User: What shape does this take?
Amino acid sequence: MLALRPTCEHCDTALPPASGQARICSFECTFCADCADTLLGNVCPNCGGGFTPRPVRPASDRKGGNYLGKYPASAERKHRPVDLAAHAALRRSLDGVPPQDR
Assistant: This one.
């Protein structure tokens, strides 16, 4: 189950469970849309993969008890600003490689 981390790992912007601005990679590294798209260029600084919008967990029980109240979002913040020089090198090494092929 997705952790739904509460903030952007780079800039620490709040990303509540219903946020449409949250982006995740396949390892659930979590960034805001601005950092993921602009600063990071759709390259996760932790794994090199691409980002996708994080799904929103239903706030109310619509079926089978699968909702935010039963499965709350994580409160664990992972604020670890990206080393932009190291990230630039990673981006260069992946230049021309589509996210699905990384």
Notes: Residues 4 and 73 are 5 Å apart (CA to CA). Helices lie at 33-39, 84-93. The two ends are 23 Å apart (CA to CA).
